[in-house]
Amino acid sequence: MLTNAPRGTKDILPDTVGEWTYVEAKIRDLCSRYGYQEIRTPMFEHTELFHRGIGEGTDVVDKEMYTFTDRGDRSITLRPENTASAVRAYLQNKLYGDGSLTKLFYIGSMFRYDRPQAGRMREFHQFGVEALGEENPAVDAEIIMLAMDFLQSLGLKDLKLSLNSVGCPKCRPVYRKVLQDFFRDKLDELCDDCKDRFERSPLRILDCKADADKPFMADAPKITDCLCEECQDHFHKVQDYLTQAGIDFELDARLVRGLDYYTKTAFEVKYAPLGAQSAVAGGGRYDGLVEEMGGKPTPAVGFATGLERVLLALEKQELLPAMDKQTDAFVVALGEAAQGPAFQLLTRLRQAGLKAGMDYAGRSMKAQMKQANKAGARFALIIGEDEVKEACVQLKDMEKSEQQKVSFDNIIDKLCAEVKG
RNA sequence: GCGGUCGUGGUGAAGCGGUUAACACACUGGAUUGUGGCUCCAGCAUGCGUGGGUUCGAUCCCCACCGGUCGCCCCA
Question: Which residue gives the smallest C-alpha to C1' distance to B67?
Answer without folding.
Answer: A7
